[in-house]
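Researcher: Here's my situation. A collaborator sent me these components and asked whether they could plausibly form a single complex. I don't have experimental data yet, so a predicted model of the whole assembly would be a useful starting point for our discussion.
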Amino acid sequence: DGGITQSPKYLFRKEGQNVTLSCEQNLNHDAMYWYRQDPGQGLRLIYYSQIVNDFQKGDIAEGYSVSREKKESFPLTVTSAQKNPTAFYLCASSILLRAYNEQFFGPGTRLTVL
Amino acid sequence: AQKVTQAQTEISVVEKEDVTLDCVYETRDTTYYLFWYKQPPSGELVFLIRRNSFDEQNEISGRYSWNFQKSTSSFNFTITASQVVDSAVYFCALSDGASGGGADGLTFGKGTHLIIQP
């Protein structure tokens, strides 16, 4: 079955450590996105990529980094520079980077920084 | 700048009641797209519907219906004869077409937590 996988589902890290969240899709989509969700809040865009080796900052990119070495993979690194990293992180993809394309979401990773 | 407002933070109804979730949006663009997503307790967002700014026809899909009104910048979602399985957080989202094809991703409202009591 085609879809988006994110791992792990739950992640705990100590303050000051970098951590990488995995996102893989087998939908053959060109565009991929990372969103952050805080309790009672909508999703906010961190980074997006429309093609391999290309990515752009979203609304809240500070303290995060990404890479897009393969079409299927778009890992997100939460660095120690991110002041409040505890949140629910959702990865998404769409066929192309077009406004009319619906985005498909993965199951999310819940990151807790102790 | 884009903005999506879902004023209803939480709605609780008894099963079989009809319920409407409100969504008001702001955009300067004439071409834009509106979406509704459902987020069940598992956390994964599920796409429900897309509507473009040039199509004001209301849409019905089973127990779900959507009312798009450009005059009031609203895109409301109604569930008829609600069921317990409809309990979830529902998000309205906006994407405009002027920025080169959705280059800014989706702008989400804060969501409405819908609770259907048996």
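Model: Some features of this prediction you could bring to your collaborator: The interface with chain A takes residues 4, 9, 31-33, 35, 37, 42-47, 50, 52, 91, 93, 95-97, 99, 101-106, 108-111 of chain B (CB under 8 Å). The radius of gyration of chain B is 14 Å.
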